[in-house]
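Appendix C reproduces, verbatim, an entry submitted by the partner laboratory led by Prof. M.T., so that reviewers can inspect both the input and the predicted structure.
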Amino acid sequence: MVEDFRLRSVAAAAYGPAALFGLSEGAVLPVVALSAIDRGASTPTAALITALLGVGSLAANIPAGVLATRIGERRSMLLAAAIMVTGVLTCLADLGRGPWSLLLYGFGILLIGVASAVYSLARQSYLTEIVPLHMRARALSTLGGSMRVGMFLGPFAGAAAMQVAGLPGAYYVSLAAIVAAGVLVFRVPDLEVTADDRADASAVTTRGMLKQRWRVYATLGAGILLLSAIRQTRQTVVPLWAAHLGLSPTTSSIIYGVAGAVDALTFYPAGKVMDRYGRRWVAVPATLVLGVSFVVMPFAGGAVSLTVAAMVMGFGNGIGSGIVMTLGADVSPRVGRPTHLGIWNELADIGSGVGPLILSAVTALAGLGAGIVASGLVGFAAAGALWRWIPRRAGPDR
């Protein structure tokens, strides 16, 4: 019976692999630019290679939906793990300093971005199918939280390994974590899907889904795009403002870590509130808190006040854990859900790319403080869009 469902019953299927996948990514992310520079890249080239993570995700979101429809969510997760392993091994292949080495390394980073998109969609679709509606937000917020815990721990594990093995140590940690995630997923049972359901889902095309549900993508999807924009920008503003204040890199990292800890510790209560009172009760406050944290950050004049602003930012982001996945599941059709989620995740990734561009453009025109405030206004716009277009109730799948 659905009343007897417990989240711990899906821990091995969803949360363990999510945490390990997050740890795998988190170990690599801090050293991407450093690794590129170590191979002879200039600073702009290193930034371009780092951006390939997002490019890979953008390119793979919609194909990931098609893939999950064709081969199923579990096999998609296994394929994502295999792509991730290939990407990390490619990054470890050292051809010395020079363009060929950078090309090979960039290809490895691109594969990691592709793997992230495929895995994210498959795990979201899998969990949406097996969790009853009345626990959906808790399940998906816990999924997002598990990934964040892994992302939080990954840099520390990578740093410890680098003390022994240098830069490759971070990739060894990533490789071990993703292999462990693949082993867990391999033991997960496939979803039970009838031949008729599989045939119906296979008949759904991306173009057909866009034509059928364009109003959802143009309204609620726009709110998700704006939310993703400010979320992505938050990862940049704390280090930038810390540098503007003349704080040391160590102090900046500590402030960033404290904010990440607040973020990682606040995911479960938000899911419970969403399931009990509705999605608006978390989505709107989360975006408002994020917006406020941006607007007040330029008033921070030292490490303590910046830490407070960063903690508020972490709280706003943390309580919104899983909201993009939950809303995507709420408005998904029963037939063709992976295809819908591929489009949904594409909107979120577009927002993640737009957010830093807004910050960069306004900063170039009016200074860093104005750029941060402008980014905060994006959060207020997201709150308005989500308040207007989130469905009043998460009804049964259509």
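The mean pLDDT is 87. Additional entries are available on request from the coordinating office.
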